[in-house]
Amino acid sequence: MDQGIHFIAGLPRSGSTLLAALLRQNPRFHAGMTSPVGAMYMALEAAMSRRNEAAVFIDNAQRRAVLLGLFRNYYENIHSDKLVFDTNRAWCTKLPALGQLFPSARMICCVRDVGWIMDSLERLVRSNAFELSGMFGFEPGGTVYTRINRLAATDGLVGYALDALKEAFFGDDAHRLILVEYQALTRAPDETIRTLYAMLNEPWFRHDFENVEYQADDFDLALGARGLHTVRRKVEWIERRGVLPPDLFDRFSGDIFWRRPDAVARDVSTTRFGG
Question: Which residues neighbour 106 within 8 Å (Cβ) at sequence distance 6 or greater?
Answer without folding.
Answer: 6, 7, 176, 177, 178, 199, 200
